[in-house]
TrEMBL record:
Essential cofactor(s): FAD
InterPro entries from the UniProt entry: FAD-bd_OxRdtase, FAD/NAD-bd_sf, FAD/NAD-binding_dom, FAD/NAD-linked_Rdtase_dimer_sf, Pyr_nucl-diS_OxRdtase_dimer
Name of the protein in its database record: Pyridine nucleotide-disulphide oxidoreductase dimerisation region
Organism listed in the record: uncultured Blastococcus sp
Family: Belongs to the class-III pyridine nucleotide-disulfide oxidoreductase family.
Keyword tags: FAD, Flavoprotein, Oxidoreductase, Redox-active center
Record-annotated Pyridine nucleotide-disulphide oxidoreductase dimerisation domain positions: 330-432
Entry's Gene Ontology molecular function annotations: oxidoreductase activity
Alphabetical list of Gene3D superfamilies matching this protein: FAD/NAD(P)-binding domain
Positions of the FAD/NAD(P)-binding domain: 5-295
A Pfam family of this chain: Pyr_redox_dim
Amino acid sequence: MSIERLVVIGGDAAGLSAAAQARRLRDASELDIVVLEQGPEISYSACGIPYWIGGLVEDRDRLLARTPADFAAQDVLVRTDTRAEGIDLAAGEVVAAGGERLGYDSLVVATGGKPLRPPIAGLDAAGVHGVHRLADGADIRAAIAAGAKRAVVLGGGYIGLEMAEVLQTRGLEVTVVLADPLPMAQLDEDMGRHVCAAMGAMGIDVQPGQPVREIEVGVDGAVRAVCTDEGSYDTDLVVLGLGMGPETTLAREAGLALGATGALDVAHTQRSRSHPEVFAAGDCAQTFHRITGEAVHVALGTHANKQGRVAGSVIGGRPARFAGVLGTAMTKVGDLEVARTGLCTTQAEQSGYDYRTELIRSSTRAGYYPGATPIHVKIITERGSGVVLGAQIVGGPGSGKRIDVFATAIWAGMTAEELAGSDLSYAPPFSPTYDPVVVAARVASRSARD
């Protein structure tokens, strides 16, 4: 019996999850697995890079989950510093650097994402950094060590907030320049205002509503300032926090179909809709929203790992389907924790829902317990049915992970009334008698009956 071959392009969350799961289901006598990774490291936590830059993680290698040797012990060959240059779909081959051709029976494209880089003059200058790879983190750390004093962060999403905080922690003067009117555009305006106020209280200079016109570059080729129509902000360092797009160059040039979001178009099995022998997973792949069913692109490691596992299961002969996303995510800036799940009001309106919202203010702990801080919870429900469509949380330490209760309720299709009656834990160090989640759900359930 001939041995089949699985080739995986990309050695991070999605690609290695696919390889590991396929190996669990089929041994080396049946399936040869080769992973091509263009960089020197695999299986690293990109989400941890800001905290390595900030010094909270002292050793870079703590961000490495597994090594090529770990996979070799499972009969998975991982080839680092090996760039895939092309995919020959007709021949069933991947073309690696130097012209080497690797035949495959199944192919997983896990090329990940790339930082969004709008067409702005000077954006490719020395001193402008993404926060995507370990090399990016090393470059920013080196700039700080070389004496950078001022930093401008472009964008106020998850990466923008995290980088603004850690750069300030490292002693830099930090300005955050936003095209949007508020940071965290994933939140509704009333919740985003809390985030903006907290950043200002920390001493971070937030400049909203100012699309960048150009990056001013000195005679030495390094950045000098970020320029908008409203002003110019001197800087030694520019960090891109404008979000992530799918890296599909290789797949697009090969002729694999892309979806409405610009990411690779795949079925719920992660199988390409245009070429059934090809799978795609992670930040390069399009997925769907669990509530609306609409095509979305959400770049998160949680989804990448799950999608890779689905692809590996199907390749290994076990039926599997990806169940969709809610966009559940959280971050922090200073002591303020920020989290969201499901639909915000803009998304609910665009999807045609008749919705209503409730916003409550409570406490992270029993009010008399030391360390209790305010928490703001917003819940979005469908008018009439009371089904929970989304939630947002902004508050002090202990606030953010409460979003997982809302995410679970939305996943299960619960109503606000059902959530209000759920049996959540209580102890003064962790929660008031009625947890803020329950309070928000109870208020929403009362409104549903009005």
